[in-house]
């Protein structure tokens, strides 16, 4: 990216990188790791701004994916996170596509070190 004089880096963090998760379930190592990704994004955004390399992150909320190890088969878990999410539902994996396309496109050329939260309203609470 430095050699070509431009680039886009999109990190994936989590809404739990911006706040603690204990109001739903305690996962301190996960929240610490995702908080590190958030701050790495900010730092790299500053570091590479003059090089025309934009570094931003997406912080998803609850998305139905295979990464959850069967958690979405647990009705109690699904009911809990659905109730926690202001939009009253869990996102489908394809719904992260729009924010990713935006950050990868020229529409976000004047944006760096930013965090795009896509969590159904959880962080607005």
From TrEMBL:
Superkingdom as given in the UniProt entry: Eukaryota
Family annotation (InterPro entries): NAD(P)-bd_dom_sf, SDR_fam
GO molecular function: oxidoreductase activity, acting on the CH-OH group of donors, NAD or NADP as acceptor
UniProt keywords, alphabetically: Oxidoreductase
Family named by the database record: Belongs to the short-chain dehydrogenases/reductases (SDR) family.
Name the UniProt record assigns to this protein: Uncharacterized protein
């Amino acid at each position: 990216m430095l050699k070509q004089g431009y680039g886009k880096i999109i990190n994936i963090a989590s809404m739990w990188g911006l706040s603690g998760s204990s109001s739903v379930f305690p996962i301190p190592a996960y929240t610490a790791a995702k908080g590190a990704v958030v701050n790495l994004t900010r730092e790299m955004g500053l570091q590479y701004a003059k090089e025309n390399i934009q570094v931003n992150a997406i912080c998803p909320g609850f998305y139905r994916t295979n990464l959850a190890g069967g958690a979405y088969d647990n009705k109690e878990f699904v009911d809990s996170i659905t109730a926690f999410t202001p939009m009253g539902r869990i996102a489908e994996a394809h719904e992260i596509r729009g924010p990713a396309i935006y950050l990868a496109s020229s529409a976000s050329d004047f944006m760096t070190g930013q965090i795009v939260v896509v969590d159904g309203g959880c962080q607005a609470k």
